[in-house]
Write a sequence for this structure.
């Protein structure tokens, strides 16, 4: 993984010193609340419902065992012994005290971490593929360009006070595991006919109140131009994005307002006149950063491990876990493993300090002391020998991290919701838990097959409900919590936004609503057809009919 | 100024110098920030962009006139006047409105402006570092900020990843020599 040199280290230490002084001045009354707000937000610090929340950056989801141990120690010392992994591959601590935050940031800096720009109206943490570097379908390892983007966006002086937050994702594989189409800027690494490396540039996607699929504004951007072109996009947005209405301030609204062609024309014009040859990326830099992401010292293995395959044949529980939580690897005899943070009864994405230490240890023994955070809020060991999978499974089971539900209904993606977040309209975690309890039968879950259920406690869509095959959105109606259901959303290359099926439901009805959607699916599906594909083939109507049949469910007016 | 209203501009401002920065008394008079501008006022005037031509006619060809831009003003409209203005000032009515950072960068890079570029309005010491990087060389802080105490904030960071107006080379083109 990328290791800081003296310059990278100096920058994060200077950032800590800056925020220590800003916090001191705020507490001394020298800075007003309005003046301090953007400063604390750009260091990841929110003032939440019960206490501050600190969001720590995990650049493109990559962590070392050493870093995860530090996060565990911070969770124990400054939080209540756990942390929450987010859909943007970051970690949130929910109870730190404002006056402790400079010290927390100093401890993060000691392990080459920070909380820079994890919130606020600026360029946020760059996200990428949790299988980067090991995916069989990878074109180029996106971590190299992601790290270059991280450095470019860190403390960018021109784009710290944008109209709204700005999210960038980069994907280097054929399949899209990063939701590129749903970001302010999404980048697909591609090669042209001559084999030259470049980027397909997508702009204006996003979730939130006005969900939109992004638009390609450039099919092939030479890789050297990545930063000059992004600066042109950001400059057009910074100058012309709306600032009069919080809900219309994202770049997607500007792109829609101008039209994609006119927006692209303005970007190209800004780019032509504003770029400099000095801003071009260099082969030396690409090589320097790439040298931080070598293949680990893999063993040369001939093919699939016979012992592993035999175990799968003889042990049904192990086989079920392997089906869902073990993923293909570019090297023979290796696999990636998802450690599930979606056990029933635990808030999705939550991990205790003990679990973090356990995973750090597991990664050290089985996966070259590194791990990744996925945007589905699980942890990934990316480089496990197949021969070790049975041992990893047994150990993970003992720590409650082996729920075999990746890609299934109970692998719910969920924001912290109204239990924690001051923005939320409704609670999300208890609803997720009720659904998980209703569908604990693994045979049934496996029969239903791949199904993404995403839930957000408000329009900000941190739980990405728009792209859930089933999406649930918490809404407030006259002070009461209701839940709106959409179906047919999808992530990946064919990303689609879900359609709302009708009036909202009370929390207690949600397991039954999901059960009726699944009943409808089971009755309507073709063989081997996923839930989401049945929805796309038949439309929302038959599902809606089943859910609202008889009207015995309480629905909001 | 009506009694009781806050002054929009402080009497002293920060100016970058070849050797660092210092605090100076402001010799300019800004007009048109509240109500219509008095273009016949005496002194060295900084006028709204829309009034620049008229002010020049009123004040005579020899007068030095400055111009100030609101956040939404297009710097392209100044392209033909860059050699004739004494100062370009960019207003930050709210510190979270960051349009002025891009306006400044464009004036420097795209239009080649080399004269005084001043930031004024709702800015404090915590904005100075980024403002400087975007090409500003003079800063009128919100009046409740002490400009002397703010000077160290111009140099908060010694490591700059990106190219900007103050540093045309991105760090990746300087890393080898900086590490040496």
């Amino acid at each position: 993984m990328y290791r800081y040199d003296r310059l990278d280290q100096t920058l994060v230490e200077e950032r800590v010193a800056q925020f220590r002084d800003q916090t001191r001045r705020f507490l001394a009354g020298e800075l007003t609340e309005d003046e301090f707000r953007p400063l604390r937000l750009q260091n990841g610090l929110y003032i939440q419902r019960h206490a501050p929340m600190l969001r720590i950056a995990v650049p493109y989801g990559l962590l070392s065992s050493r870093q995860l141990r530090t996060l565990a120690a911070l969770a124990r010392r400054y939080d209540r012994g756990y942390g929450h992994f987010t859909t943007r591959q970051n970690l949130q601590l929910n109870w730190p005290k404002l006056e402790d935050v400079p010290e927390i940031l100093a401890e993060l800096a000691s392990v080459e971490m920070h909380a820079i720009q994890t919130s606020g109206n600026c360029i946020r943490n760059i996200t990428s593929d949790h299988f980067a570097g090991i995916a069989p379908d990878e074109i180029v390892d996106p971590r190299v360009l992601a790290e270059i983007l991280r450095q470019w966006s860190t403390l960018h002086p021109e784009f710290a006070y944008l109209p709204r937050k700005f999210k960038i994702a980069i994907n280097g594989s054929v399949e899209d595991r990063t939701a590129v189409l749903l970001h302010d800027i999404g980048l697909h690494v591609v090669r042209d006919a001559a084999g030259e490396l470049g980027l397909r540039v997508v702009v204006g996607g996003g979730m939130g109140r006005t969900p939109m699929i992004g638009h390609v504004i450039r099919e092939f951007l030479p890789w050297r131009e990545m930063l000059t072109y992004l600066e042109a996009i950001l400059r057009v947005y910074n100058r012309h994005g709306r600032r009069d209405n919080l809900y219309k301030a994202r770049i997607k609204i500007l792109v829609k307002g101008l039209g994609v062609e006119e927006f692209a024309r303005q970007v190209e014009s800004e780019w032509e006149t504003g770029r400099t040859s000095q801003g071009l990326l260099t082969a030396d830099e690409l090589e320097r950063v790439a040298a931080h992401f070598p293949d680990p010292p893999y063993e040369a293995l001939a093919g699939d491990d016979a012992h592993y395959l035999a175990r799968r044949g003889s042990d049904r529980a192990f086989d079920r876990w392997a089906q869902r939580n073990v993923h293909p690897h570019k090297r023979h005899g290796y696999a990636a493993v998802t450690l599930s943070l979606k056990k029933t009864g635990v808030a999705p994405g939550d991990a205790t300090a003990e679990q973090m230490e356990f995973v750090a240890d597991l990664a050290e023994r089985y996966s070259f002391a590194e791990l990744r955070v996925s945007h589905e809020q699980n942890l990934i060991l990316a480089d496990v020998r197949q021969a070790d999978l049975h041992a990893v499974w047994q150990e993970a089971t003992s720590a409650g991290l082996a729920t075999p539900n990746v890609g299934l209904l109970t692998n719910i993606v969920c924001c912290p919701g109204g239990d924690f977040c001051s923005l939320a309209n409704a609670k999300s975690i208890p609803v997720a838990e009720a659904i998980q309890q209703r569908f604990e039968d693994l045979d049934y879950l496996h029969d239903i097959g791949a199904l993404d259920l995403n839930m957000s406690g408000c329009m900000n869509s941190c739980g990405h409900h728009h792209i859930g095959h089933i999406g649930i959105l918490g809404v407030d109606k006259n002070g009461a919590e209701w839940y709106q259901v959409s179906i047919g959303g999808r992530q990946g290359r064919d990303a689609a936004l879900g359609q709302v099926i009708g009036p909202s439901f009370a929390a207690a009805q949600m397991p039954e609503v999901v059960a009726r959607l699944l009943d409808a699916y089971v009755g309507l599906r073709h063989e081997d057809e996923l839930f989401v594909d049945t929805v796309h083939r038949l439309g929302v109507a038959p599902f809606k009919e089943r859910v609202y049949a008889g009207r015995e469910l309480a629905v909001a007016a | 100024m009506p009694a009781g209203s806050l002054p929009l501009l402080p009497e002293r401002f920060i100016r970058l110098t070849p050797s660092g920065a210092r605090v100076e008394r402001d010799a300019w008079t800004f007009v048109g920030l509240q109500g219509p501008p008095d273009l016949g006022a005496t002194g060295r005037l900084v006028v709204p962009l829309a009034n620049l031509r008229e002010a020049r006619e009123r004040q005579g060809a020899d007068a030095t006139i400055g111009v100030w831009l609101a956040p939404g003003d297009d710097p392209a409209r100044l392209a033909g006047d860059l050699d004739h203005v004494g100062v370009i000032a960019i207003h930050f009515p709210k510190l979270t409105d960051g349009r002025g950072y891009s306006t400044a960068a464009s004036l420097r890079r795209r239009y080649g402006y080399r004269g005084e570029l001043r930031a004024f309005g709702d800015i404090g010491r915590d904005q100075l570092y980024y403002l400087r990087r975007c090409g500003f060389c003079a800063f009128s802080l919100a009046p409740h900020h002490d400009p002397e105490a703010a000077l160290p904030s111009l140099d908060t960071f010694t490591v700059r990843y990106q190219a900007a107006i103050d540093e045309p080379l991105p760090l990746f083109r300087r890393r080898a020599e900086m590490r040496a």
Remarks:
- The beta strands of chain B are 12-17, 20-25, 28-30, 44-48, 65-69, 85-92, 116-121, 138-140.
